[in-house]
Amino acid sequence: MLTQLLLGDNNFEGRLPPEIENLTMLKELQLSYNNFEGLIPNQVDNLQNLELFDIGINGFFGTIPFGIFNISTIRAIALEANNLSGQLPSNMGLFLPSLQQLILWGNKLRGTIPNSISNTSQLVNIDLGQNSFSGLIPKTLGNLRFLQRLRLEWNDLTVESPELSIFSYLSNCINLVVLALGKNHLNGFLPKSIGNLSISLQKLRLYNCELKGSIPIEIEHLSGLTTLTLTNNKLSGLVPTTIGSLHMLQGLYLGGNRLKGTIPPELCYLRSLFQLYLGSNYLSGHIPRCIDNMTSLRSFRLDFNQLTSVIPLSLWRLTDLLEVDFSSNSLSGSLSSEIEKIKVLRILNLSRNQLSGDIPKTIGGLKDLTKLSLAINQLEGSIPISFGELVSLEFLDLSDNNLSGEIPKSLEGLHSLKYLNLSFNKLQGEIPTRGPFLSFSVAAFMSNKALCGATRLKVPPCEEGGPHKTKTTWPNMLRYVLPAIGFIMLALTLAFAWKRWKKRNPKSPAQVDLYPLVTWRRISHQQLVQATNGFSSNNLLGEGSFGSVYQGTLLDGMNIAVKIMNMQVKGAFKSFDVECEVLRNIRHRNLVKIISICRSIDFKAFVLEYMPNGNLDIWLHSEDHYLNILQRLNIMIDIVSALEYLHHGYSTTIIHCDLKPSNVLLDEEMVAHVADFGMAKLLDDRDSMMQTMTLATFGYMAPEYGSEGVVSTRGDVYSYGMLLMETFTRKKPKDGMFIGEMTLKHWVDESLLTSILDIVDANLLRNEKEHAAMEDCISSVMRLALECCAESPTQRIDIKNVSATLNKLKSKFVLDIRTS
After folding, report:
1. How far is Cα 757 from Cα 765, in angstroms, rounded to an integer?
2. What mean pLDDT do residues 681-704 have?
3. Residue 572 has what pLDDT?
4. CA–CA separation, 366 vs 763, rounded Å?
5. 792-807: per-residue pLDDT in tens?
6. CA-CA distance, 39 to 17, in Å (whole number)?
7. What is the maximal distance between C-alpha atoms in the chain?
8. Which of 482, 545, 641, 690 has the fewest CB within 10 Å, making it most exposed?
9. What is the spatial distance between Cα 347 and Cα 370, in angstroms, rounded to a whole number?
10. Which residues are marked as active site?
11. Nearest to 677 by CA among 538, 565, 525, 521
12. Are 572 and 599 in contact (CB under 8 A)?
């Protein structure tokens, strides 16, 4: 006579026994949030009085017994977050007159969504998200007049026409509150009819749907919206001013599109807005000064746009802000001392802008700040001692500025600090030795003016007493300065005489010399011979088109890589000059670091930082090497970070032109560094492309490069897409299996219609617990790769958007693994 069996939210395990069929009077069976597993027994069909069948958040697998869809009394079927597979019966809606809740998200269900679902006329909630359903979204869903929540996100569904007429049909669902279709292949234009959806609609989620065209101004009619998510599509045009009339809006997410123009000041009317994400677009102009009207704002992201002018003072009046990310724009001016007003701020990222002036001392008032990045700006002055008051700080990046003075000892008290980067500044004096500084590496302090400290940091030892403790008098100073001036004048005289003599004797053998960069070491040819044991074959790391690379060790113990050019090969001279031009100026943590250049008439070599873990090609295609999915994601994020710098972060646009696994080097921490710039091209501000007769590596080079010699940044994006596919499939573009019309691109494209796990590197399938999250992640990565490899350069995604997308995919994967 049992009518209710409610065991949810415990730690039960084992299987659901077939004897369940004996509970013939059972109305409610609730087993959710446990550790049950195994098949759902077919005997459940016999529970003909069942009204609630809830076994979600367990480990059940296999197919759903079709008999469940024949129990006419059932009101709710909840099977979410299991490992169920198979398809839904084509007649599933014909025998469920009372069904109100159908919750099947987070499984492995496939096939189409049956049109018969519309016969279940009492349905209020449909959630089929995070499965592998394909085919068309049924138009008949528009017949469900009681429908309040429709979630179909993270599937492979499509629509019948590019005008997305599905919105016209769903306008009949006058009670609709949630509509989530994200991560499907809608591939069309948002129609004006979107404004005809229910005025009760609160959440509209259409992210990663391949939407194009503009955002219709009719969106203003959805006056009940609290969340509007259109991220990672191909939307263009302006941000509609009519969005400012959506006064209930709490979350506005338009990032990862192609929106342009200015940020409309009408957005300032959104006083309930909690999160505003406009990053990774082409927005320009000013940040509206009226933003302080958005008093509910907690998270504000404008990263990777083309915004100019200064940061408005009104920003610092939003005293409840938790996150600000304006990175990768062209913002100028100085940081206001009013920054201290945002007492609760946790994340501040203003990197890759043109900010100048001093860092305000008042920044020490941000006690809750966990991440601060001001990297790659034009900031100057000293690092404020008040940084020591940022007691919650975990991440600090002040690299690539003009900061001077000493590193404050107060930073030793930041016990939560895990990452520090002060490189490429003009800092001097002793590097602190206590607290978090015990674990920081060389990279945190490299390329500064005159730092000293521990030998492990590869800086000179500090003089006893320190330079800041000694007083230098003019007589003492002159004793050192005058000889130095004399030496410089003598050197200039000799240099001028040498230049004239060399001009008159052009065929005379030249001694080994170096490019005149003061940050480089002077290393002679003889030192290179000694370091490499006479360029012994035992020290050979690899050979390329224009030369060979040897591993060596200098007398002071420094490990180096020596790239010797084969001057007998046609084009080697030009390749050497190009690589000199690039390497002597660029600097980025994901680009190979040059230590010196050594050359004479018949000898030319680069001395580079040694990478102990070799190159990516070895790790992908050698049997004794293995990379897990996170390592591969991190490597690809490193590479795209390097390309983003080359394309957008340097004064001249640099195109690598030969991106492939063997040109990606891995340091001791498996951080990737892009190398080999022998084929690189430099574009000035007037050009977006150029032509060349130089051919890159077949299989990785873009079609327009091979056929017409057209070089642009989009060519590097194409190569990156091919590299992305190779990294996760372990198949080279010229693998023997690809013949005729079957290419790596086609192979990946077809697998997205079936199962991506069929083509991924088998090594990635070792951990079965990660399969669901891995399938979602790699499917998204492969779609991104195909966007990079579009045949037409204009259709390829920009490298900035690649970077943003890949970082988000990694974050989601990590979250999925933690919660699985």
Report:
1. 8
2. 63
3. 67
4. 45
5. 888 889 898 998 899 8
6. 10
7. 112
8. 482
9. 6
10. 658
11. 565
12. no
Q: For residues 419 and 397, is the Cβ–Cβ distance under 8 A?
A: yes
Do residues 207 and 232 lie in contact, with contact meaning Cβ atoms separated by under 8 Å?
A: yes
Residues 6+ apart with CB under 8 A from 409: 388, 432
Mean pLDDT of the chain: 85
The CB-based long-range contact list for 432-436 (8 Å cut-off, 24+ gap) reads: 432/407, 432/408, 435/411, 436/411, 436/412
111 token code pair? 């096939």
Residue 345 confidence (pLDDT) above 50: yes
Residue 720 is encoded by which pair of tokens? Answer: 């990156």
**CA 264/CA 266 separation, integer angstroms:** 5
- The radius of gyration of the chain's CA atoms, rounded to the nearest angstrom, is 31
| Phi then psi dihedrals of residue 29, to 5 deg | -120, 115
CA distance 797 to 258: 10
Asked if 238 contacts 254 with a C-beta cutoff of 8 angstroms, the reply is no
* Intra-chain end-to-end CA distance of the chain, in Å: 37
The pair of structure tokens assigned to 686 is 């007037």
Burial of 162 (0-12, 13-18, 19+ CB in 10 A): middle
- On whether the CB atoms of residues 16 and 41 are closer than 8 A, the answer is yes
Q: Which residues pair with 234 in a beta bridge?
A: 212
Locate 300 and state its tokens: 């504000």
Angle at 217 between CA 215 and CA 218, to 5 degrees: 110
Q: Are 347 and 370 in contact (CB under 8 A)?
A: yes
What amino acid is encoded at 2 in this protein?
A: L
Question: What does residue 146 show for φ and ψ, rounded to 5 degrees?
Answer: -95, 0
> Which conformational region is residue 304 in: left (phi greater than 0), alpha (psi within -120 to 50 degrees), or beta?
left
Q: Which domains does the chain have, with CATH numbers?
A: 1-155 (3.80.10.10), 159-301 (3.80.10.10), 308-462 (3.80.10.10), 525-609 (3.30.200.20), 616-819 (1.10.510.10)
* Token pair listed for 454: 């521990």
Q: Cβ distance 349 to 375 under 8 Å? A: no
Token reading at 39: 């098949």
- For 694, other C-beta atoms within 10 Å of its C-beta total 16
Residue 479 pLDDT exceeds 60: no
How many C-beta neighbours within 10 Å does residue 502 have? 11
> Token pair for residue 653?
């646009």
Exposed/middle/buried for residue 370 (C-beta within 10 Å: 0-12, 13-18, 19+): middle
Give 557's contacts (C-beta < 8 A, 6+ positions apart).
Answer: none
Question: What's the DSSP call for residue 351?
Answer: -
Torsion of CA 463, 464, 468, 472, to 10 degrees: -80
